TrEMBL record:
Binding-site residues, ATP: 359
Domain Protein kinase: 331-610
Organism: Juglans regia
Protein name in UniProt: Receptor-like protein kinase At4g00960
GO biological process: response to abscisic acid
Residue numbers spanned by region Disordered: 627-649
Signal sequence extent: 1-24
């Protein structure tokens, strides 16, 4: 299907370029042949609902609409994006007009897209939210005239586009847009760039960079203007103003030059002294403020957070402490399941016979308060078969308890790395576990109401239910973002599963979880911890892949199974652990690669080479570029135990 769609888009692009001089700049549409519907079908009814709802939505004022209606094959996913410099009324008018035109031009196609000068509308029966489309379909409108001095024109255009690309990509979840100008001799170049805001920063930048390549190809190099469009991003530049100047992003301001040569040491000295004193006072006030916050946080949990936890979900139960104490037999050692940074986990049984797992915050654990609130507020909003379900909480006095569903088969590492139990995990079960974890990640990254980065994905945080179905657990370190990339000075997780950009710089994204998932795939295939190999699991896997002996990685008990599927999983695992963030696949791509053997896999590039030394311990890791973080705030595990952990039996 993907190959036929690519061929279809390519043919349309070739035809478009042949007849480009006869086309108007006003509008272009594309009807895909990947699926059709009838005029009286449920799909058409859902499509009408989606398009009408977007253009009439008065609650959205930022020009980006996304909506899904229906189920299964009748589900319609739609996106509309208006140019960032137009008003709300003009935006809705454009979305309405383009939607109606698209229905007329593509009367029975399940996937279509239309570009107007002020907006873009697209819909499909497949998931399109947060998905970076390939460079196809991509259309260009270039001006027939060339610049008089192509080299000088390009030297001004390139920095302008690069500056606007960075501003656009760094936008938030409601707006990824930038416009600006740059002077070139006697004329000025005006440019406007935008991405659909559902993309993360990396995908937006990648899309714009690919789109910008058209500007410097033989067909378009040196043209005085043009527009380069794709479903995920849009780029246009002209030698005349074509957007509202109020929407411009000004270039970095330069300090005015100093007039005259006369120096005034006394004034300079005064300025330096005043700035130094002001800076010192600022530091002192920040320290005092920080200490006050720390003291208050040790004394009590913020009352507003309590209220938010209490009201977060209708079906979320607030248990009283007495009920949980009875259920766990007063938190007896017999019912103890495990222990982590948050506290101890106990098995319990309610009066109605329902078995539960109870995570109890250790007294005096400041970090536990943060993890408690984080996990409650996140998990209460999540419902997926591959995520551990939280049933409720207890917030009474100094007691902080989290109540989970009880899963009888403990965590994945209890089976995977146990010489006796690992024989229960045949290849079929291992592949099912890999697919289940991937679907759970996809829900966190793309399909839930919030984009969530787990940040501590590993075998001990994958619980197995009675049917050996995987459930991602331990969300104490997870982060909720309005985009898929963030940065932190407080690095928390487990060495061996951290990607280099997180361990070194504190940068995390959906691709961070993809890296951890790749390590997990290789562990599941090999049946060994990532630290079990002298040179590290990733280096061992890469060496054998390069030498054409990847089966050396496979656990001996699996050799009688489908080696084709096993090799494909190793291939996918190596794609996930590539050192460069941009080279790693998205979570959506990973799920597709696992579920369909017809999808061709890219050639993986090498992962970060990790070495384990006696000084760092088996769970600390270093790369050829000093992988081990020097940040004093790094709180990474040295024994595979993260902040919070539970081991149900």
């Amino acid at each position: 299907m993907c190959c036929s769609r690519l061929l279809f888009f390519t043919c349309l692009i070739l035809i478009f370029h042949l007849f480009a001089p006869t086309l108007a700049l006003d509008t272009i549409h594309l009807c895909s042949d990947e699926g059709n519907y009838t005029s009286n079908s449920t799909y058409r009814a859902n499509l009408n609902t989606v398009l009408a709802s977007m253009s009439s939505n008065t609650n959205i004022s930022y020009g980006f609409y996304n909506l899904s209606v229906g189920e299964d094959s009748n589900k319609v996913n739609a996106i509309a994006l208006c140019r960032g410099d137009i008003g709300t009324d003009e935006c809705r008018t454009c979305v309405s007009a383009s939607s109606q035109e698209l229905l007329q031009e593509c009367p029975d196609q399940k996937e279509a897209i239309i570009w107007y000068p002020e907006c873009m509308v697209r819909y499909s029966n497949r998931s399109i939210y947060g998905v970076l489309e390939a460079v196809y379909p991509e259309y260009t409108f270039e001006k027939p005239r060339n610049a008089s001095d192509v080299g000088a024109f390009t030297r001004v255009l390139v920095p302008l586009l690069e500056r606007l690309e960075n501003i656009t990509a760094a936008g938030n979840s409601t707006r990824k847009f930038a416009a600006g100008r740059a002077a070139q001799d006697t004329q000025t170049i005006y440019a406007l760039l935008m991405c659909t805001p559902d993309l993360d920063e990396l995908d937006c930048k990648s899309c714009l960079e690919q789109t910008r390549e058209w500007v410097f190809r033989p067909c378009c190099y040196g043209k005085l203007g043009g527009r380069y469009m794709s479903p995920s991003c849009d780029l246009r530049y002209e030698t005349y103003p074509f957007y509202d100047s109020k929407a411009e992003t000004p270039p970095p301001s330069l300090l005015p030059p100093t007039e005259g040569k006369e120096s005034k040491p006394s004034r300079t000295t005064i300025v330096i002294i005043v700035l130094t004193i002001g800076f010192a006072l600022l530091i002192v006030s920040n320290i005092v403020f920080y200490l006050r916050v720390r003291i208050r946080s040790r004394q009590k949990v913020n009352s507003e957070a309590k209220q938010e936890i209490s009201n977060v979900h209708e079906s979320f139960i607030r248990y009283d402490f007495g009920t949980i104490r009875v259920a766990t037999d007063n938190f007896s050692e017999v019912n103890k399941l495990g222990e982590g940074g948050f506290g101890v986990v106990y098995k319990g049984k309610l009066q109605n016979g329902l078995e539960i797992a109870v995570k109890r915050l250790s007294m005096g654990s400041l970090q536990g308060n943060i993890e408690f609130e984080n996990e409650v507020l996140l998990l209460a909003r999540l419902q997926h078969r591959n995520l551990l379900s939280i049933m409720g909480f207890c917030l009474e006095g100094n007691e902080r308890l989290l109540i989970y569903e009880f899963v009888p088969n403990a965590s994945l590492d209890h089976f995977l790395f146990d010489p006796i139990k690992q024989v229960q995990l045949n290849w079929e079960k291992r592949h099912t576990i890999i697919e289940g974890i991937a679907r759970g990640l996809l829900y966190l990254h793309e399909d839930s109401r919030h984009r969530i980065i787990h940040r501590d994905l590993k075998a001990s945080n994958i619980l197995l239910d009675a049917y050996m179905n995987p459930k991602i657990s331990d969300f104490g370190t997870a982060r909720l973002l309005d985009r898929t990339e963030g940065n932190t000075m407080r690095i928390i997780g487990t060495y061996g599963y951290m990607p280099p950009e997180y361990a070194q710089c504190g940068t995390f994204s959906t691709k961070s979880d993809v890296f951890s998932f790749g390590v997990l795939i290789l562990e599941i295939v090999s049946g060994h911890k990532n630290s079990s190999f002298p040179e590290g699991l990733l280096s061992y896997a890469w060496k054998n892949w390069r030498q054409g002996t990847p089966l050396n990685l496979v656990h001996p008990t699996l050799m009688a199974n489908s080696t084709t599927q096993i090799l494909r999983c190793i291939h996918i695992g190596l794609l996930c652990v590539q050192e460069n963030v941009n080279d790693r696949p998205t979570t959506t791509s990973v799920v597709l690669m696992l579920s369909s053997e017809s999808i061709t896999l890219a050639v993986p590039k090498r992962p970060p080479f990790l070495m384990y030394t006696s000084s760092t311990g088996p769970d600390h890791m270093l790369s050829r570029r000093s992988y081990q973080s020097r940040n004093n705030n790094v709180q990474a595990s040295v024994n595979d135990v993260s902040i919070t952990e539970q081991y149900p039996r």
